Amino acid sequence: MADKPNDRAGPADAGVPIGQRLRSAMSLLEATLEATADALLVVNLAGHVVRHNAHFATLWRIPKELLDTGDDERLLAFVQDQTVDPEAFRAGVRLLYADPERDSYDEIRCKDGRILERYSRPQRIEGKAVGRVWSFRDVTARRKAEAARDRLLESERAASASAKVAAERAAFLAEASRLLASLDHTSALESLARLAVERFADGCAVDLLDGNGTVRRVALAPPAAPAIAPPCEALGKGICVEQDDRRAVLGVPLAIAGRVIGAVRFTRERSRGFAAADLALAEDLASRVALSGQIARLYTQAQRALRLREEFLSVASHELRAPLASLQAAADGLLSGAYTGGAIPPGSPLGRPLRAIDRQVRRLSHRVNDLFEGIAVATSGVEIRPAEVDLSAVASAVVARFREDLRPGASEIGLTTPGPVVGRWDRERVEQVIAALLSNALRYGEGKPIEVAIAQRGDRALLTVRDRGAGIDPERLPDLFACFDRAGVPRDHGGLGLGLYIANAVVTAHGGSIRVESAPGEGSTFVVDLPLGGPPETP
Amino acid sequence: MKRLLLIDDDDDFREILCDALAFGGYEITCAASGHAALEWLARHGAPDLILLDLMMPRMSGSEVKSRLDADPALRGVPVVLLSGDTHLAELGRAMGAAAWISKPTTLEKLTAVIEHHIGPGSARRCG
Q1: Using CA atoms, how far apart are residues A21 and A171, in angstroms rounded to an integer?
Q2: Backbone dihedral region of A462: left (phi > 0), alpha (psi from -120 to 50 degrees) or beta?
Q3: In chain A, how long is the greatest CA-to-CA distance?
Q4: Which residues of chain A have a CB within 8 Å of the CB of B107?
Q5: Among A71, A325, A475, B24, which residue's beta carbon has the most beta carbons within 10 A?
Q6: Of A313, A323, A338, which is closest to B23 when you measure between CB atoms?
């Protein structure tokens, strides 16, 4: 059986003469020494140079003449002079020469900025140290890259920490603003002080200046915190930081338009203190506190003014209507014969003055009603109580009432209806709208006929009131439904200018609209468009 | 004869209405204040309908209405508010009034409301 090459027990060069094998091994060693990227140096136990590769001379910039001398001491001196710490370099070498079995690794910093890794391990023959191999590697580029990476990481960490702090501050301010949005300013300040203690400082106090200049503490957190003194040092002096042996106190004035109205103070342990960013945050917070205080104050004043107005209107309404009520009832009773058992006869000399009193009282009553109704609409809107209503029937009733009261020479009122037009509306409010439009038409109709028409178009009802009077200047049309607008008509036409305003509000509250077509000298046509379904559902 | 109680602090209004409604056949009693009205009610018992002003000194109309509601003998009497208050309808609903009439008003309207609740008067003057 023939031997296979792989089955041979001996080395591949078994049988090669030993001299040749030695030369081959030496050649391999030489090639390896020169091929490696590291600088290599081999010394014997006495420290004398045995071998080095070419890269060793290059790395340490050793002149050939010096190498050729084989003077170990000069070589070591030449090398160590290039290092930042020559003594440490030499001490390391001595230590290893004294302990031949020892391995080592360290880094050497050179004066020219290079960083070299230095490895050293014993050279052994049959387990016994006979010398030492030194290996040097230039890691300057790698170390610089690592340092750059570390710097980058550090700056990222710093940016991240800074972003986190900024986010926490923004969240703190946002939460503070949310608390300060409450119109109960005292409760808001108490909540704010607690929030500040959770997120910003160890203690927080808010002081406000009363009208007479006395300082009133409105919030303190935590409640059992020691008094934050000195009181109101910050007032009028701008932001300030004071310290005692325990605490740092940051005081910020609360100011509106340059007028100091109080101060907010924060405390921290002295060791923690307040940084510039804390001061900026405190100032931001103080400006929000001051602004919210101003808003709350204005709100309270506005509420008080509204309450006073309501009270005044209520009293004024009563005081104006009570005497009118007596006058109206008396005139009414006299004319209807409620006290005499029969109406005033046509030729009675009392008839004209009594009817004049009755008319004027009614007129005054309408003005007073319009005035308070207009104010109510402007302040509270229109309340609608819809029910099934026939618009034609309502229009007929209102027109009939107006016809009864027409004076000689006044416009005649015509009415056209298609039969019942039924929708869900507030009957009294619809009457109010028709009456307002008819009053308006009578006032400006110059005695010419007035036409009222009802129509149904799909799911909508149309009410048209047309007069042939003075008409309206086109420039005034946009303001026609505004409060107190009388469309530029002379004062002797009377009226407060509230009828159309109220009518428009009522129609709008029903989900409808009023439009007007008019030209000076040609009269005006008002068209009310109402949805049959009534006012839109409110959520 | 159907009995009415008018409670109003305005002397003229009270007298004019009293005369007109008496002429319309109702037995009407006029009270110038809430206290006077309650005293009369304590002595004479429930009328068929009460006409009540709201804004009166010392005892307001709403307080009078609360007292009426608290009395089992009186809480069923229809109360018609007569007032110039700007929020009359709102108050009327809140107080549970039978009706409300804004001052000033006409005798015709007032009579219609009264008749709606208790029927027409007997067209006899009260004494």
Answers
A1: 80
A2: beta
A3: 168
A4: 329, 332-333, 336, 338
A5: A325
A6: A338
